[in-house]
Write a structure and sequence with these properties.
The protein is α+β, with helices and mostly antiparallel strands and about 120 residues long. The protein has six helices and five strands. About 55% of the residues lie in helices and about 15% in strands. A hairpin with a 2-residue loop joins strand 4 and strand 5.
């Protein structure tokens, strides 16, 4: 199929506006379901907060309780608990109780991989 060509576009765009239907179709074929897009957006929004990102990096090494995380971050236990609820709702962390202590750990290795991949990208 021949691309459609129309007027000139300025700036960072093409010098000629040309639509390639076959490329559009391939993009549609590999597109992600809109519900998954929204869930993925929520995960990246959660990770965009410096406090939550520091919590995730701390939990990459080992499980920690809210008291330990608060001491590490230099913020209140209440503030940590608030962040943990958000991370838990997104299945980024999970908890286990040992008596009166609630420990948090990354939900799975993929969470740490997200951080490692992002760090690899920015360090290139």
């Amino acid at each position: 199929m021949t691309p459609k060509v129309s007027s000139i576009v300025e700036g960072d765009g093409c010098a000629v506006r040309m639509i390639h239907p076959e490329k559009i179709q391939r993009a549609r074929d590999r597109s992600i379901d809109i519900r998954e897009i929204h869930r993925l957006t929520a995960v990246y929004k959660a990770l965009s907060d410096p406090t939550r990102l520091r919590i995730i990096t701390a939990l990459k090494g080992e499980e920690m309780c809210v008291c330990d995380l608060a001491a590490f971050l230099g913020i209140s236990e209440s503030a940590v608990s608030h962040q943990m609820r958000r991370l838990k709702d997104l299945a980024l962390v999970r908890s286990r109780r040992d008596g009166q202590v609630l420990y948090y750990v990354l939900d799975d290795d993929h969470v740490g991989d997200l951080i490692d991949l992002g760090l690899e990208h920015i360090r290139e």
